[in-house]
Design goal:
The complex is a heterodimer of chains A (333) and B (277). With 333 residues, chain A is an alpha+beta fold. In chain A, 26% of the residues lie in helices and 32% in strands. In chain A, strand 14 and strand 15 form a beta hairpin. The model of chain A has no long low-confidence stretch (mean pLDDT 91). Chain B has a domain of 166 residues: MetI-like fold (Orthogonal Bundle), CATH 1.10.3720. Chain B is 75% helix and 1% strand. Chain B has a two-stranded antiparallel ribbon with strand order 1-2. Classes of the chains: A alpha+beta (333), B mainly alpha (277).
Chain lengths: 333, 277
């Protein structure tokens, strides 16, 4: 079980309020991702849940019981840190055994759990090595192994993949996803990378300046962003936001259209512009177009084998059904 | 690739470094040579000392006959090791709290402690001397252990603080998440990681305390006098006895030199700890 409920949780560092009172419920077994730009308070929020920081107000309930003032060890949560935070003087085996040793678990049970975790994480051959002798990906697995053996109520991940190279990151992303499917344990995952958030989450919590901007499934956030911030943050490449007369035509202060919802033509269309940079990725092409009123440059995502180059004139037609409208206050209309 | 250095340059660099090293080592070498000479030979012109005279160990036997070397040696051991252990007992918790739970004024406290080392010791000798008289603890080993501990405590705390600072906070947080109590955290995580730093701090402090002369000379006479006082006793108003003085000096510095020699790897590692990631 691992249902986590934040009630009016607040955090101040001195006079500075980094998290104004907020409410959030994370259901048992859910994979929740906290996402937002750096400094938005997502890591602080995770550390509040972990108990590594004290709240300045409000309550944190874990499985219905008030855990606000419990020390980290008593909350039944396991955490994987960005730097892995392995104990450098202990072997992999001892690292994984450490939480069980602290819990005074019987030796044979410890052994059984170490072996099954090592098997699940492909670490069997490395159990007697020190962390310094492992690669980044292996260290990350050890950190996860150390978290698994405790059979925690929930796993907390603090940007666990940001120290890995791009290829390894994709692999580990899938491994963590598989692990979640297998264990069905609540996981809270902090990242600034919206791709990680979109691919892994059951539920995404978008934060900005300590405030929850929107909570929802990845596709909900993609389809119906609640405000301009979420609209711009979720989706890659970013949504084009257009102000001015073009927006007024739709009775909105700002309209948003995603790069993948714009038709490109070399002959005719609603808007006209010139090609700035065309990024050919093979499978698709991202074209940055200058000269469209109210949005410069406008990004368009189109098929891979389109033959446009710098300086070409192109015509754009947005899919009218997929235009997002926002008011002057930034909220969705 | 490393920067290319020509052979000629290597030879000249080696020669310069070797010469400098020789000049620095020369006084000790000369003391070693003089310690194996008779008193008459020891005061001759340098070349005659080297080539025009015989070798003898009579300086050493004279020193041993005149004073009980072992007593001074034991005093040195007790004072240097004792003050180091006592210092570590105070400094470990102090440095721990400053490194891991710093307060607003932690930096100021550290600077203040360092500033006490800028005070000339002679400035406080009179009050301390008077206190010792008042409590009747002049020439007392326990008093010296305490005084030397106080003298070197700022350095011990600074060194330990630097080592503790090197330990990433996330590792201690991980231990907390893993269910470690404060005791477990210190015992299983912090201490094993800090042992190299503690060891080199202890070594350096033993050397500092061993060589400390100002306080030991001023606060002892016979009972608690360590090897520094033992050397000093050979420069007496009756005149200088170079051979005996040299023999005494060699006997006083040999133990710490040998210890330093065997622990130099640890010492250098400790002193440059954290300089290179």
């Amino acid at each position: 079980m691992g249902r986590i409920q934040l009630k009016q949780v607040q955090k101040k560092f001195g006079e500075v309020e980094v998290i104004p009172p907020l409410d959030l419920t994370i259901e048992d077994g859910e994979f929740t991702v906290f996402v937002g730009p750096s400094g938005c308070g997502k890591s602080t929020l995770l550390r509040l849940i972990a108990g590594l920081e004290d709240t300045s107000g409000g309550n944190i309930d874990i499985d219905g019981a008030d855990a606000t003032d419990l020390p980290p060890a008593k909350r039944g949560l396991a955490m994987v840190f960005q730097s892995y935070a392995l104990y450098p003087h202990m072997s992999v085996r001892k690292n994984i055994a450490f939480p069980m040793k602290m819990a005074k678990m019987p030796e044979d049970e410890q052994k059984r759990r170490i072996e099954s975790a090592a098997k699940a994480l492909n670490l069997t051959d490395y159990l007697d090595r020190k962390p310094g002798q492992l690669s980044g990906g292996q260290r990350q697995r050890v950190a996860i192994g150390r978290a698994i053996v405790r059979e925690p109520a929930a796993f907390l991940f603090d940007e666990p993949l940001s120290n890995l190279d791009a290829a390894l990151r994709v692999g580990m992303r899938m491994e963590i996803g598989e692990l979640h499917k297998k264990l069905e344990t609540t996981m809270i995952y902090v990242t600034h990378d919206q791709v990680e958030a979109m691919t892994m989450a059951d539920k995404i919590v978008v934060l900005q300046a300590g405030v929850i901007e929107q909570v929802g499934s990845p596709l909900e956030l993609y389809r119906t962003p609640r405000n301009k911030f979420v609209a711009g943050f979720i989706g890659s490449p970013k949504m084009n936001l257009i102000e001015g007369p073009e927006a007024a035509k739709h009775d909105a202060h700002t309209i948003g259209i995603r790069p993948e919802h714009i038709e490109v033509s070399t002959t005719e269309g609603q808007w006209q512009g010139t090609v700035g940079v065309a990024e050919h990725l093979g499978s698709d092409t991202f074209i940055h177009i200058h000269g469209v009123a109210g949005c410069d440059p406008m990004t368009v995502r189109t098929v891979g084998d389109i033959a446009v180059k710098h300086g070409d004139t192109v015509y754009l037609t947005p899919n009218a059904d997929l235009i997002h409208k926002f008011g002057a206050d930034g909220l969705r209309l | 690739m490393a920067r290319a250095i020509s052979t000629n340059k290597k030879i000249s660099n080696t020669a310069v470094a070797g010469t400098l090293g020789f000049f620095m080592f020369f006084p000790i070498l000369w003391i070693l040579i003089l310690s194996f000479k008779t008193e008459e030979d020891a005061v001759r012109a340098p070349l005659e000392v080297l080539f025009g005279s015989g070798w003898t160990t009579e300086g050493y036997s004279a020193v041993q006959a005149r004073s009980d070397y072992f007593k001074f040696f034991m005093n040195s051991v007790i004072i240097s090791v004792g003050s180091t252990i006592l210092g570590l007992m105070i400094a470990i918790p102090a440095a721990w709290s400053m490194a891991f739970v710093p307060a607003k004024r932690t930096k100021d406290v550290l600077m203040w402690m360092l500033s006490t080392k800028m005070l000339p010791p002679v400035g406080v000798i009179i009050p301390i001397y008077l206190i010792c008289i008042k409590f009747d603890i002049l020439d007392n080993r326990a008093m010296l252990v305490f005084v030397l501990m106080m003298i070197n405590l700022p350095i011990i705390i600074w060194m330990l603080y630097t080592y503790f600072k090197e330990i990433p906070g996330e590792i201690l947080e991980a231990a907390r998440m893993d269910g470690a109590s404060l005791k477990d955290e210190v015992l299983y995580v912090l201490t094993p990681m800090a042992i190299p730093g503690m060891a080199s701090t202890a070594l350096l402090n033993i050397i500092l305390a061993w060589n400390e002369a100002f306080w030991t000379l001023n606060l002892t006479s016979a009972k608690a006098a360590p090897l520094t006082a033992f050397i000093a006793s050979y420069s007496s108003p009756e005149g200088l006895f170079y051979a005996k003085l040299s023999a005494a000096s060699i006997m006083a510095i040999a133990p710490i030199l040998i210890m330093g020699w065997f622990s130099q790897k640890q010492l250098v590692r400790g002193l440059t700890f954290g300089a290179v990631k």
